[in-house]
Amino acid sequence: MELLLVILVGAFYSAGIYMMFRRSMVKLLLGLLLLGNGANILIFLIGGITKGKAPIIKPQNTEFLEVYADPVPQALILTAIVISFALTAFAIVLLKRVYTTTGSDDLDSLNIQDLDI
Amino acid sequence: MTTNFILAPVLMHLFTAILLLFFWQKVFVQKVISIVGNSIAFILCLRLFEMTLTNGYLTLQLGGWQAPFGITFMADTLSAIMVLLTALVSLAVGIYSTSSLNISRIKFGYFFIFHFLVMGLLGAFLTGDIFNLYVWFEVVIISSFILLTVGGKKMQMEGAIKYVTMNMLASVIFLTAIGILYGITGTLNIADLAGKVAQVENKGLVTVTSLLFFVGFGIKSAVFPLYFWLPSAYHTPPSAIAAIFGGLLTKMGIYAMLRVFTVVFQPDHFTLTLFSVIAILTLITGALGTINKRSIRRILSYLIVCHIGYLIAGLGLNTELAFVAVIFYLIHDVIVKSNFFMISGIILKMRETVDITRLGSLLKDYPKFSFMVALVLFSLIGIPPLSGFWPKVLLFQETFKQENYVLLAALIVASFVTLFVVIRIWSEAFWKESPKPITEEIDHFRPFSLSGKIALIAPVIGLTAVSLFIGLNANNVFKLAEKAAYEMKHPEIYINNVLSTKE
Asked: Which residues does UniProt assign to the signal peptide (chain B) (predicted)?
């Protein structure tokens, strides 16, 4: 399972960075999405994958009797997903707007203002 | 000392933002609420600053969960300085934007987002938890995305694409670094991380993780290879927005670096050399970028990049005196950069352009305003009694002492280029005769009502006065910076304060 996830994380990151190097704005967005998902899976993987119980421990228990899952990575991923959801929603609207104002989804056509010094 | 008061400035801005939502279309009410909210928040920040100076460290364990488990809020001298600067700049820009922005932008919810942005900045400066820092960063960047694109001009859209992409990339890298750091230490509290990171045996992994943090923060603060989004985005939004971006947003990345590389990671020789190299390249590229630009705001954007180099250089020297210089420079830089972006907005109102070849005779038409701008320009270069001089001297001295001559050369070159560019702005925009006659239609500044003019000029006067105060009162500011630098060099005080606080 770990090995599969490691490969998956690597694939997500490399595909994401590859997509970001493309000229199309849609591919740029997809690249960012892939990178974000890669980061989430990385946190999940690195936080330790255990077949554990829910981490609810009774107050009278003084020592850990069973294997419990670490709740922190899950909380982190949940937060990160929500944030990236908002950012992605914004980015999609922005790209749509850029497409309607410039009429092109080629990133290289967006450098007009850099020529004007 | 444990106190709930740490959160007061953050909550004040949140409260103001929520209140603004109820007056979505009422522009005048929004302006009043925003100014009142900013003023109260400024007073609260001043109080927080004073409390930090008298009591030392302030901590707050949210929800009563003890330190490594809950989220900690923490104010030391560095945080207190940053919080006070944020409050000062947000108050000035808040007043300035009541008059400088047009009504349609305000109706799009400008003030609402503005307060969210400031709330995010304050939260980032006060948090003691690395993941919480990430969340505050996101609050800031999503607000800045909206501020940058409000209005929706074609030029703004082009700048925004680069800005949004680079900032989202930086966030992913930052998140990756946090994930790996959690994997190797099992904690997220900055103070707790310090001890756990020191125990990790695989030093290579720690260095790689620290560099991931450096890349993440570096993109946000526009250091060398990944700085290009800044000059292509910061000159596009209205001046009020550019003022808050230019003054504070890049400094948030610097603050995070200062925090992470003094408390969590103790940089090794390799990392320090890397900082120096990056600083040299940032200084040189930023300086070269300014030379052929004609728009004042473009020049300023490159100057921001260039001056970030000073801060990274101090980080690379890694001595207490260098940190004093960095903190002093940070104080000076935040105020001067915000001020100058506001001034560029006023010039735009006076002449319809900020292109220095088309500007002229500002000194003749507005002598008082021009003398004030001269003061700001002088402190930007670092003419002796003004605020930019003292930190630069310290930094040069420290670089010389460490025999890092290449860095010293880069610092001097950057200073000279700043001088050159500032002289160029002054002689072109203020001294020379205007290339075309100034007619009534061009000057949008004179027709402003008196209150409108005051709202434009008063913040600039205020920030100039603060610059003057810092320069003339350098002794006390130096002591303050020294205290912050001492705390940065002795992270164990920070760690003990966070981990041992009892309810």
From this structure: none
- Spatial distance between the Cα atoms of B138 and A80, rounded to a whole number of angstroms: 10
**Closest by CA position to B180, among listed B234, B149, B216:** B216
* Dist CA A28 CA A36 (whole Å): 12
Tell me the CA end-to-end span of chain A in Å, nearest whole number.
54
Phi, psi of A77 (to 5 degrees): -65, -40
Whether residue B131 and residue A47 make contact (CB cut-off 8 A), yes or no, is no
Which of B145, B161, B298 is facing A90, going by the closest CB pair?
B145
Please tell me whether the interface predicted TM-score (ipTM) of this complex is above 0.95: no
Kindly report the number of other CB atoms within 10 A of residue B314's CB atom: 30
How many domains, in total, are found in chain B? 1
Mutation for testing the A interface, residue in B108, B133, B144, B182 having most A CBs under 10 Å: B182
Q: What is the spatial distance between Cα B257 and Cα B248, in angstroms, rounded to a whole number? A: 14
Amino acid at B2: T
Nearest in space to A88 (alpha carbons), one of A2, A16, A1: A16
Domain hosting B150: range is 4-499
Per 3-state DSSP, chain A is made up of helix, strand and coil in percentages (nearest 5) of 70, 5, 25
Which of B141, B167, B172, B178 is the mutation pick for testing A, counting most A CBs within 10 A? B172
Q: What is the pLDDT of residues B157-214, one digit of tens each?
A: 888 888 888 999 999 999 999 999 998 888 888 888 888 888 888 888 899 999 999 9
The pTM (predicted TM-score) of the whole model is 0.92
Contacts of B108 in chain A (CB under 8 A): none
pLDDT at residue A114, rounded to an integer = 54
Contact A97 B152 (CB under 8 A): yes
